[in-house]
Write a structure and sequence with these properties.
The complex is a heterodimer. By secondary structure, chain A is mainly alpha-helical. Chain A has 14 helices and 4 strands. In chain A, the strands form 2 sheets. A two-stranded antiparallel sheet of chain A has the order 1-4. In chain A, strands 2-3 form a two-stranded antiparallel ribbon. In chain B, about 30% of the residues lie in helices and about 25% in strands. Chain B has 8 helices and 12 strands. In chain B, the strands form 3 sheets. A 6-stranded mixed sheet of chain B has the order 6-9-10-3-11-12, with helices on both faces. Chain B has a 4-stranded antiparallel sheet with strand order 2-1-4-5, with helices on one face. Chain B has a two-stranded antiparallel ribbon with strand order 7-8. In chain B, a hairpin with a 2-residue loop joins β1 and β2. Chain B is globular, with a radius of gyration of 19 Å. In chain B, about 50% of the residues are buried. The chains are: A mainly alpha, B alpha/beta. The interface between A and B is large, with 36 and 38 residues.
Chain lengths: ~350, ~260
């Protein structure tokens, strides 16, 4: 049964070896991600030429720190979106964890305990989202829209809207200023999260099921997979990542504010979608998210260096988002889209 | 086709259903169904829409729990509380919607839920090699195990779904409308695959509305009408007019059991 080299196999019968052969690298690459990589490179070169300070090590290191939180949450969001869900509450969770962590430090908790608490708070909110979505069947869009409001509300209620300072003697504050090989802790942790995300999405059953659920949840359920648990885990993961990002942001700023990370969820979702992850689910790319996060932050960073009006940044970022998604649509989905339109007509 | 198989007639009775009933509230979907299936046999299950074919197969696959009657597998009475119970008794089913994931590749779909692993990671190399072997053994025509399911034709998808079910090494394989909405050449490859699977000793139950397919691959036909099994005939005793008569219960019928409905 396992003979793969049966000489009697004619051309009509596909041989096992030929079937298992990998397609070329180009065929396997997500084309949307390639387009994005090109755009990012072009933008990078543009700023490098336009402003000499852009390519300085200090600025690149600063850029890496700015990208960090977006990237950490973006990697987790890639799983959520690939599974066909969405998490709108990450910005609120970031603010909640930043503010409450700062308060805990003020209350005299040890830094190590606060760090664990920060991660647990993030994970906890993520699991609340996940439980309502997966086990109660409420769309993630609604659930996380509700927690977006509730979680930030709780943080505002708890802090009275004031920013809570973190004493510079605490380990958390030192973590915010620590550098290794010229890059901040945030940047290094983001890199680790990217690697973990890559392995998790493309190397494990969890990643496989996340993709499968995004494509056809019922098929995965019938294959004997606990779809609800996987879905809840994905949302728990994004909560955990938001908790981590909240802690790092508070550490870097030396204070925790319930008003921080406004609109953060949209930046993260934009980065994920820019990278080529399908909002419809079933198709996700961590490398794409890395590129998407880099692009959004390069634009913000570069425009700041050029000292143009800061109000230009959201305008340009939004325009690039639409342009890139449009280009990607033209590449593959536009044909399908037109087909659908004409069929209906 | 039946007579050509190794003649071990004693232990080859795979499945017996006796007096199976199932109600959804006041609606009696199944009102006493008898059915038998032997090793290496292709049994056609026919009946008009709403006759209860799909419900019966869901009972046998463990997706639906019956109210009354008995299921015997290898002569032993069993009761399925879930699809995994039925799978443990080596009963496989390919539903009409195939239960595939479009954005995963062929090998990933074949091994969905039971990926070969090396440590905590999926062993992709082993997975693709095993998938290729399964597909080559069944002469399934796809270009590569790395192909995404969404890029395959309807017939290819169907054969991949059947190959997936066959790879569980089932004793019983239930196919729900495998040839509906397929191009002519694709129907041929699916029918050939069904023959190959039965030749391996698997008992196949084929639900279809395409009566001509029944004459191509089936050994025996069980006819259902309004939730009951009303006829059971060898294919050699039938022609297409007779079969239509059995399904629609029109006068020209030559019933072997007669319905007492």
């Amino acid at each position: 049964m396992s003979t793969t080299q049966t000489p009697t196999d004619t051309e009509a019968a596909p041989s096992a070896q030929r079937l298992a052969r990998r397609s070329s690298l180009w065929e396997r690459t997500n084309k949307a991600t390639v387009v994005m990589a090109g755009v990012t490179l072009a933008v990078f070169v543009f700023f490098a030429v336009a402003d000499g300070a852009f390519l300085s090590f200090a600025n690149l290191s600063n850029l890496a720190t700015q990208v960090g939180p977006v990237l950490i949450v973006g990697v987790a969001m890639t799983f959520v979106i690939t599974a066909g869900q969405i998490d709108l509450s990450v910005g609120s969770i970031v603010a909640f964890v930043a503010a409450i962590s700062a308060q805990l430090l003020v209350a005299g908790w040890d830094s190590s305990l606060v760090m664990v608490a920060a991660l647990l708070m993030g994970l906890g909110w993520g699991l609340v989202n996940g439980w309502f979505t997966a086990y109660q069947g409420i769309p993630a869009f609604i659930v996380t829209l509700a927690t977006l409001s509730v979680v930030r509300g709780l943080a505002l209620f708890q802090t009275g809207g004031f920013s809570v300072p973190i004493a510079s003697t605490t380990f958390v504050a030192q973590l915010g200023t620590a550098k290794w090989l010229g890059f901040s802790a945030t940047a290094w942790i983001a890199l680790v999260v990217v690697v973990v995300g890559l392995v998790l999405l493309h190397g494990t059953q969890f990643g496989q099921y996340v993709i499968g659920i995004g494509a056809a949840a019922e098929s995965v359920r019938r294959a004997g997979v606990n779809v609800k648990l996987v879905t809840m885990s994905a949302l728990g993961f994004s909560g955990l990542a938001a908790g981590l990002a909240g802690l790092l942001i508070a550490a870097r700023l030396g204070s925790g504010s319930a008003n921080s990370a406004q609109g953060f969820e949209l930046t993260v979702i934009a980065a994920v979608v820019l990278g080529g992850t399908s909002l419809l689910g079933g198709r996700g790319t961590i490398v794409g998210t890395l590129i998407g996060a880099l692009l959004t932050q390069i634009i913000a960073n570069g425009l700041t260096l050029l000292s143009v009006s800061p109000y230009l940044t959201p305008i340009i970022t939004g325009t690039v988002l639409v342009l890139v998604v449009w280009i990607n649509l033209r590449g593959r989905d536009l044909a399908w889209f037109v087909q659908r339109l004409t069929r209906r007509a | 086709m039946t007579e050509g198989l190794p003649a071990d007639r004693t232990g080859d009775l795979l499945v017996e259903l006796a007096g199976i009933t199932k109600s959804y509230g006041p609606v009696k979907s199944l009102r006493g169904v008898d059915l038998t299936l032997r090793r290496g046999e292709v049994l056609g299950l026919v009946g008009d829409n709403g006759a209860g074919k799909s419900t019966l197969m869901k009972v046998l696959a463990g997706a639906v729990q019956h109210d009354g009657g008995e299921i015997r597998v290898h002569g032993k009475p069993v009761r399925f509380n879930s699809p995994s119970d039925a799978q443990a008794e080596k009963i496989g089913i390919v539903y009409q919607d195939l239960a595939l994931c479009d954005t995963l590749d062929v090998a990933s779909n074949l091994f969905l839920g039971r990926e070969p692993k090396r440590g905590p990671f999926i062993d992709r190399k082993a997975m693709h090699e095993q998938a290729a072997r399964i597909l080559a053994d069944l002469h399934v025509k796809v270009t590569s195990t790395h192909q995404e399911i969404g890029t395959l034709s309807g017939g290819q998808r169907q054969t991949v779904a059947i190959a997936r079910a066959v790879s569980f090494a089932p004793d019983v394989l239930i196919l729900d409308e495998p040839t509906a909405a397929l191009a002519v050449a694709e129907v041929e490859s699916v029918l050939k695959l069904i023959g190959d699977v039965a030749a391996q000793g698997v008992g196949v139950i084929l639900i279809t509305h395409r009566l001509q397919d029944l004459f191509r691959v089936c050994d025996r036909i069980t006819v259902m009408y309004e939730g009951q099994s009303v006829d059971d005939a060898a294919i050699v005793d039938l022609d297409i007019e007779k079969l239509v008569g059995l399904i629609t219960r029109t006068p020209q019928q030559t019933s072997t059991e007669g319905s007492r409905a």
